[in-house]
């Protein structure tokens, strides 16, 4: 059979078709990726995958920002200043290096002085001799983004910076770094702390004692040795809304000996009021630290609340994780009014110093307010759903989500029917109350730490 001749134009179309047909496109993409991967592998051979990624991302950003860098060079030259303004920082193995200012810090990453994620680049003078010794053992390069910075912005930097750095260095992975970089986005949105930090900040009319976790734990220990009992109240955005419509609850919060800012909503409220909330001091983060602090002191804890079996499991958790901490007793939170005197008597006879009541707000706080004297304890606090977390009934949000200030999102995901109103309507209503009450804010309540 005679074949029809193929015109040059048709041949070209055929070639293009083969090249850009589905298979062709994927083959080309694959070959391009292999090419990139070869380069990455070569670079990785020089300093590991993390170094290779740092190098590639820094180079890409420098190329993308080259017009800006060129303008900067012209401006600096006109001012008679050098392009690279340098500050001495402690680097890898604590070796000093010159950190460039502004976007030029990308050249530090390119050169390998710094990484995108790592411990903060500190001035050598900032380090104590012990910290310097510790840093000499760190192979990690200082980072543009660091874990402690993220925790500080999310108000959960409970441990000191060197501890946070050590945690990062010991558990460092490329995937982990990627997670930290992502968490930096909400951290940037929360912003730096505002300049004014007051010891008592009034939020929607509730005087909040603006203390850190360490301050609160010290207060508890001191109080366990005190003759007069004290009530601790954790106040989150939902509590603020409840107090807005429940005068009895508001009065309890106003009379609480230590009233603490719980959650990211309070941090945002503080920002709106131009008063920095020092830390997110919530019961769930305080609990393990409280057990550790009371360990060996002989001051016992009584666990009251939640469903039958939960408090017992929390007691087991304490025995396992803090064997030196005394659990004076426990019982569930489902009892009738006629059983109440027996419950109170049980607590009093247990000799506990610290009482944790998990009935949910506002009931738990009102209950403590009414019965604190009868229980014989020195410190009592309402802890909401804490027993559900530590008994393992409800898993807590992973640390990375808490660091991103998204614990509430996780609670919503777990119980959407119960939580949607609290978070999606409640948080907006709360911030609206904060804005409205801004004018009446009185920060005069003593103005001193409790
Ligand atoms: N609860 C209780 N007795 C009751 C009602 C509730 O002990 O009569 C417990 C409930 O089992 C849960 C806790 O109170 O463990 C409330 O948790 P929630 O998360 O609602 O408290 P929040 O942290 O929101 O104040």
Q: In which order are the strands of the major sheet placed?
A: 8-7-12-11-9-10
Approximately what portion of the residues adopt beta-strand conformation? Answer: 5-15%
How many structural domains are formed by the residues? 2
- The second-level CATH architecture of the largest domain is 3-Layer(aba) Sandwich
In CATH's first tier, which class of the largest domain applies? Alpha Beta
Instruction: Describe the largest sheet.
Output: 6 strands, parallel
According to DSSP, the number of beta strands is 12
C-alpha Rg, in Å? 29 Å
**CATH topology heading of the largest domain:** Rossmann fold
Low-pLDDT segments, ≥5 res: 443-450
Helix residue percentage: 40-55%
Helical run tally: 20
Distinct small-molecule ligands in the complex: uridine-5'-diphosphate
First-residue to last-residue Cα separation = 102 Å
Broad shape? elongated
User: Averaged pLDDT, please?
Assistant: 88
Q: How does the helix and strand content classify structurally?
A: alpha/beta
